[in-house]
Amino acid sequence: MRVIGVVDLLAGRAVRARAGRRETYEPVSAAAGEVIEAGDAVALARIYLDRLGLTELYVADLDAIIARLAEASRDRSGGPTAGSGQDALVSKVATLGAPLWLDAGTASADAARHGLELGARMIVVGLETLPSFNALEEICARVGGGRVAFSLDLRDGELLGASNVHREAPHVVAARAARAGASAVIVIDLARVGTSSGLDVALIGRVRDATPGLTLLAGGGVRGGEDLGRLADAGCDGALVATALHDGRIGAAEIAAARDRQRSASR
Hints:
The protein is α/β, with parallel strands linked by helices and 267 residues long. The chain has one domain (2-266): Aldolase class I (TIM Barrel, Alpha-Beta Barrel). Helices cover 38% and strands 22% of the residues. The protein has helices at 41-51, 62-73, 87-94, 109-117, 133-143, 170-180, 201-210, 225-233, 243-247, 252-266; strands spanning 2-10, 13-16, 26-27, 30-31, 34-35, 57-61, 100-103, 122-126, 148-155, 158-159, 184-189, 215-219, 238-241. Strands 1-6-7-8-9-11-12-13 form an 8-stranded parallel beta barrel, surrounded by 9 helices. α8 (225-233) packs parallel to α10. It is globular. 47% of the residues are buried. The model is unreliable at 77-82 (pLDDT under 50).
């Protein structure tokens, strides 16, 4: 089980996300028992890597996501939105050397290429900001599906984003993303983010069954090491974690145990 440290960026600062209410997010000031300058994203990422032993990072550029949502509400077609004002900060995090998953409201191939130029290893295309599955197919075709992850974005179990998928079950939508060419699927319920309320393991299991062969990650509500075990049992390859790392409920020991479990399962 891979543990991937999440850095949520808003207005140039790393923030603590909670329940998807982005207007209430506050700067992170400590993680794993270490105090950092409030909102220092690079310092937070270094704690993840150096203190906790993580080997992958996930950056959510919330400014870019909010801008993309605003564009969608004005019925624009989903152009690149290149340059949210946080590009330099994203690049600084990427230069730390860990593979970087970047969620920046990507809705076009041009925007995906821009994210790769910033140093991202994987581009996350979220259902919340995706204009259509045709757009996802084009992104996968032009940058390579091996570098594209589809985020199955939910709130209280309900699908977010384009209305044409709202009548479909979440696992069916995940399968559509697989057919479009994405090599990874992320299950995340924004209402659970930062709440330590646990995950919908049954849903995650259905998504696993619907997307054989794809990398499957999940996040939102991870409470501690036991949840990492539950996710592994549901077929997850990794977990996106932020609050539990900040609070110390998941530390180096739990991360090492999850990694050992993954190695044992692969033998």
